[in-house]
Structure formats: structure tokens, C-alpha cells
Write a structure and sequence with these properties.
Number of domains: 4
Largest sheet: 8 strands, mixed
Oligomer: single chain
CATH topology of the largest domain: Rossmann fold
Strand content: 15-25%
Structural class: alpha/beta
Helix content: 25-40%
Amino acid sequence: MPDPYRFFITCARGVEDLLLGECTQHGIRNAECTIGGVAFSGELADAWRMCLWSRVGSRVLLRLDEAEVADDDALYRFVQGIDWSRHVDAAGSIAINCATSHPVITNSHYAALRVKDAIVDQLRANTGRLPSVNKLLPDVRINVYLGRSNAILYIDLSGQALHMRGYRQASGEAPLRETLAAAMLYRCKWQAIAERGGAFVDIMCGSATLLIEAAMIAGNIAPQRRRERFGFEGWLQHDAPAWNRIRPEAHAVTMAAIPTITGFEKSGRLVAIARENLERAGLERLIEIRQADSLARKLPLPGPPGLMLTNPPYGKRLGSVDPLRDTYFRIGRCLKQQFAGWEAALLTSENSLAQCVGLRAHHRNTLYNGALKCTLYQYRVRETQEAPADERNSIHALHDNAVMLKNRLEKNRRHLERWAKRNSVSCYRLYDADLPQYAVAIDIYDGEFVVQEYQAPKEISPGRAMVHLNDVIEVIQQLYDCKRDAIIVKTRKRQSGSSQYTGIESSGKARTVMEDGLRFEINLHDYIDTGLFLDHRETRRLVRRLAKGRKVLNLFAYTGSFSVYAAAGGAARITTVDMSNTYLDWARRNMTLNGFDIRANLFVRTDCLQWMHEADTRYQLIILDPPTFSNSKKMEATLDINRDHVRLVRQAMKLLDEEGVLLFSTNSKRFRLDEAALAAYEVREITALTLTEDFRRKPAHRCWCISHRGIRVDCSIH
């Protein structure tokens, strides 16, 4: 009796036990779990069945041999010691995959080349022919694994990785691998739920991967039943007649056992992709997909209650984590309001997001989405949800606080709307942490709302902070009768380093607003700051009044709003300096929006600190509004306004004409002007003059009018 073959099935970390269960289910009795897979010995038919039926395995490998290897020459000799004429047709094609943790053979690409050379050299010497290399669809794929001192050679019997079922030819931006989807379903005991008739729902179904895998598990459908070719079919020892007797097993399916399966997806593009995938899987009549925003409306749920499983965005590949907290809060609300009696689960890499769901997970499983470590959170949604003990006493208070917030916003709205109308203002601050329970700022931009959530103290859990934030969102919607899309949420953290003005998403949603008859491009979505600092409205008006006929220098110019006001005031020439091409281009667009000739003015992309040190032109009006802190790689040195403001002011004053004026401002909350160090100049604080009605309660900046000794400049704005 011939010795049994030795096999190894690879899988993602964390699902080895699931793969072992599959092996047992298909009659393999001597399988053993190891890190990253399952090893077993048996007949070729065992490997064929696992190629057809494994839902969580990645590759089925036939072990050829193992040896100690000290270097690449020893690896070459080891490979040459195998009779490759028994495995590879010299007129066919091969591909070599290599993974290494060897201390000497450290380059996997080079190791693969040495293995390829050993095989090709042997076949050419024995047959006069040599196989070609085909990395995509070779006749035989050889895998070599190099450990600390050894090498193991395998024939890859699966060919293409087993997660490639063939039904998904298009997907969304962050698709869920099919093997991971199956592992999630296994962990949630979906098969048992399906056997008792429970329905399956994915409220954010994307390209329908979870839906299709759920149907295949419930219907006992082989995941590879539609695959046209496996890797073992090009191997010279392949037994085609025996394979043809086994393959029909994969087509004996029990479609009647599939319960109701429904997916909801708000993107029309993804709905179309999902339906195409269903057709390729042959499941279009058994799975329903509805286009709907499941977090914003009541869903037509199937019955009886079963499993809701979804894979929401994590923030790692699709943008920042913070904007997703509202999404997870609404997932939790959807579950509580509509899925009573259901099992529910979601996968995420961010524990802080899972806390925002507001449900206690009865089970957590570690899974890997590629290299990204994730957790599958499983919930039992009850008829009524009881809050954790440490939160029960505060539920009524939270409700009362939300009412208090609504009353405060109504009061602010009545006052500020009248003021804004009188002053032709369409963008202003409505609220700035007036109530300690709601540490947010709310800015109105001509019908849209930017909610800037201040970073919560450590003692406030992310889940509790999300409850407070959701109160803010709902109160705004009630007061202004606006859609959720009109409310943009950001987290305002203390700026440090290169985070100044950093991007958070990439939506490209720019729009134009009016201020004092001038037009400005803003972007409420893509950056922490929007492009127009509302607190400097009066400072901009002062610049317009002072600019007539003067040469103006705008330092740390950002998007050039001061430059636009200077042009509107009749400045003779304006120099706009910033180290960001993005913001200088934005400044040019703002000038062009208002009909000003950008060719008549100067835009300089450089480090302002270095530029001031080297410049020799004199200006009659200089605006100096630097960031609080910056260590951008584009700068030669770091900038800390509390440490460096004396140096900055002195350098700016060297560029100031004898009759000119410097407007210096900062947003630093702990700023202290070193008056003694600047005693050589006329220094007058004009903060009170530059604050507008919406910032008087909580001044967002401080501002000084600085001129040469003996020069008194009128800095009144009107």
C-alpha cells in the first residue's frame, strides 16, 4: 500500500479551528492545527474535496520534501534532488511562490529565482526542453517556505487562492474577502440559525459577499463549484478519471434549505454590482437586495428573526476613524429599534467605534482582514435594552440635557439670526460649548452645519461621548428641519506638528459663500478647517479699511481671505506667502472669484520664517496670523508661537514701512505677549475691536496693532 500524501491547507490567522472543523466534516480524521493552517495526510481525493468545499482555507498544498539549508546554494541542491519530471511537463509552465524567515536567504524573490533555476536546469539537462514561467495561470505552482534553517517544498493544488470563488468580479472600495466572510458566518453559528429557518440580513451589504456566502452555507453549496480549473489539473500525477467521479458531488445542492436573505445598500452603484455578483453565483432568485439607507429609515425586515451581520467601514482605508462614530451609533440605534429578538454581529478594527454601538457584546472573536487585526462583536438584541449599571442613573439626565441643549440653541438662534441679517452675514458660530455636557462648537455656513467636537476627557467613554454628539445632531435637525447630510461632524483636537490644517477625507465638496459682498471658496468636508476663519470677520474688515493704496504682505496666508479683503480695499500690491501649494492655489481661486487680477499680485510658496529672514521689501500693511504650532517637513525649524512670537514680530517689523502697521493675531489659548521684549514698538491690543457678536462669549483669538515707535495707527474698523 503506497504511503499517504501529506498536505497542508493555509488559512488566515484566527480561523485554524474552523478549518479543522471543515476537514473533520469532510472525513479527514488525522488533521492537526498549526499556526496559519491545518496539516493532514491522506489520499488525493481528500485534497480535491477540500479544494472544492473549504470556505475558510486559502490554499491546499501537497508536501514534496523538507531539508536543512544553510544558504541559496544548499537550497538549489535540495531542489535539484527532487525528480521534477514526475511533476512538471518540460513543455508546460510553472510559477514559484516563496516566503522566507531564513537568516541568510532573506530575499524571497531571489530565493524563488534559485528554485526556478534548479527546476529548469534539471529538466533542460534531462529532456532538452525547459518550462516557461507564467505567474498568473501556470500549469504547476510550486511553493517554497524557508524557515530559520530549513526549506519545505509544496505543489499548490488549488491554483488560484480559494477565496476567489468566481462570482465577484467587481466590488466596493474595501471589499471583504470571501474566506473572511465565511469565517464570520461560522463564528456567528449561522448554519444553526438557518436550519431553524431564521432570516439573514446585512444592513450595509456592499457587493453582497456576506449574502452570497450565507446562502452557500445554508444551501450546502460548494464554494468552488463554478471554478473551471484547479492547480492540480496541470500536475503530471493528476488522476483525471478519479477527479471526474468526485467533482459532481459539488453540484448536489439543497437550494430549498436557504432561508430568506436580504441586503440593504444605499449606493446605487454597489447595488448594481451586488446584483451582478448574485447572477454569477446563480443566487439572484434567492437573495433580495434593496437600495436603502438602512441607518436613516425603517426597514422592511424579513422573518422570522435570525442573524444580522455586517462589515461597516473601519476608518483605516476609507478615511478617518472619528467621522465614523456617528455611523456606529446609528447602527446601534437601528439594531435596538428594529432587530429585537435577532442575533447581530459586526466586524471592525476599532474598539472605540464598537463602543459607539451601545450594546454589550456577548462574544468577541479576533479575525484578520488581510494584515489588519479586527474583532467580530456579537450581540443578542433583546426586546428592551437595559443600560450598563454605571449608566442607568444618567439616562433621564441625558434626556433633560438634550432638552437644555435645544433651549440654548433656540435662544442663540433667535439672537444671532437677527444680528446676521442686519450685518449681511451667512456664516457664523451658533454655539460654542455653552453647556458643559455638550463640548462642541456649531458653525453655520449658509444652510450647512459644521459640528466640531472637542476632544473628550479620558474619563468620558467614546460611547458616552457619541450619545452626547448624537443629541447635538438630532437637536440641529429638529430646529432647522435639515437632513443629516447637511451636518458635518469633526473632532477638534489640540493641534500639534504637521496636523495644522490637515485633511480628513477626500470628497472634493467645495462650495462658495458670501461675506461682505465678497465670495470665498470653502470646503466643509475635506479638512479640519473649512477655508474661512469665522472669528476673523472683523479683522478682515479692518484690513480692507487700512489697505487702500498700500503694499500689503499676508504671511501664513492659508486660503488668502485677508488678501481678498486687501484687494477689495484698493491695495496697491499684495504679497501672499504660505508654504502649502494647496492653500496658495486656493488663495488664487478666491482672488479670481472676486474679479481680482492674480497676475498683478505675488503668491509665494515658501517657509514664512525663512522668507522673512531673507526679504528686503518694505510694506505698509502686514498681516501676521501664524499657526500655534508647526513642525512641517517643509519648514527648516519648528514653530511654537508662545516661544517664537517675539522673533516673528521683530522680523516682520524689519519689513514694515516707517508709517506702516502690523496686525498680529494668534489663536493660542495660553498665549502671553512678551511686552518687555517688544517695548521698542508701539503695541496696542485690539482684540475687543476684532471680535464679532458670535465670538464675544468665547474669544477665539487675540489681536494686536503694532507700529514703529511714535506712529499711532487708527485701528477702528468702521
